[in-house]
């Protein structure tokens, strides 16, 4: 590392306050900065997606000695208390600051392109786990309906394992407007068609309900179900979607 | 409801204190009582497993008016503050008190019976999600290795959706002794054999690592992997196991 790093020690520092705003959805929307944490995800993202980041935050220069820093990523040393305030998962490992990308608004009157997931998961950890499975099993686009958590919330980033950087994320409308979306439309439901006997189309929209609520009854989507023993009344929502995505991925290979 | 319910108003009441001990693993072990919460799970468990419960707790008798109460389940009215202290998920819905069953110690020198899951998940929510998938996809027995969360912890019950009542739960030894277990032994690993091309034996032990750590390198289990796009470095652990259990369940049907 040849550049001497900037040192920030005051909680009143405007840059620190900007990064602090990345810890909740409101600040993410207002200021457009996000914080990536994680012993595996930070080095991976820095290697694979250097253009997404602008700062590398740490407390001790020894932590990043020998790291190949891309030209656009400036190292910044923080006083330990400031660093801990940003390191909400307690990784004790350098953090990356990135710019939240724009999420274009989808036009649902147009047909789907590949497998599109439509969801309004309000819990950032649940949304993150879903994004991880979506990236792992080849969903092309994820549409965040009104009420969905922010996909760059620290908890969502933590659960997603860098899935945000390989997915196309789009904004969607409210539930009421989903009913008029161009199909084919599908939704998961315990009473639907067994998805292991289903011939997956190339392009489709798969709609996920809110946590604990499912898809509205008036939604015109065809219902698909994951076959089970029947020993539990339902699957965990993230597990059900992940299994569905896997079944399609395995069937199309 | 013909029996007038007992009313408890003091936090010093010995029965209340007993139920309060069900909120953590130590109290669960010491006193052997557990608390089941949930708008769907409580009525379902009362209908399907009445023999597992001894008390139904509520704050207002109107909440349980018309409930068919089995003979062995005594209704108990609690002062609102006491009820809230036990209703840690904030359901505002009657709670069931049950007796924690005995978990026999497994003899791993004996061959497996059906699909046995061996795990040491220390987070009760993660363990609960795993139990739910195990019950849904036909794992016959779940072996809780040393360090696993208590399967009747409130968070585990909440995540498992009554899976505890249909599974055979056993206690297991420490990691070091798992290496000597009778096989066939399998473990999930990103670099293993593609499990969609795997011929599942009827009887096997599937070993799950601890959160974020995986299975110890010296564990002699054959590694299986869930095929993915490669766009994320790994799957969420619960998702990976659930997909594996589903793949086996679907293949054997």
TrEMBL record, chains A, B:
<dbReference type="InterPro" id="IPR029026">
    <property type="entry name" value="tRNA_m1G_MTases_N"/>
</dbReference>
<dbReference type="InterPro" id="IPR051259">
    <property type="entry name" value="rRNA_Methyltransferase"/>
</dbReference>
<dbReference type="InterPro" id="IPR029028">
    <property type="entry name" value="Alpha/beta_knot_MTases"/>
</dbReference>
<dbReference type="InterPro" id="IPR029064">
    <property type="entry name" value="Ribosomal_eL30-like_sf"/>
</dbReference>
<protein>
    <submittedName>
        <fullName>TrmH family RNA methyltransferase</fullName>
    </submittedName>
</protein>
<dbReference type="GO" id="GO:0032259">
    <property type="term" value="P:methylation"/>
</dbReference>
<keyword id="KW-0489">Methyltransferase</keyword>
<dbReference type="GO" id="GO:0008173">
    <property type="term" value="F:RNA methyltransferase activity"/>
</dbReference>
<dbReference type="GO" id="GO:0006396">
    <property type="term" value="P:RNA processing"/>
</dbReference>
<dbReference type="Pfam" id="PF00588">
    <property type="entry name" value="SpoU_methylase"/>
</dbReference>
<dbReference type="GO" id="GO:0003723">
    <property type="term" value="F:RNA binding"/>
</dbReference>
<keyword id="KW-0808">Transferase</keyword>
<feature type="domain" description="tRNA/rRNA methyltransferase SpoU type">
    <location>
        <begin position="118"/>
        <end position="246"/>
    </location>
</feature>
<dbReference type="InterPro" id="IPR001537">
    <property type="entry name" value="SpoU_MeTrfase"/>
</dbReference>
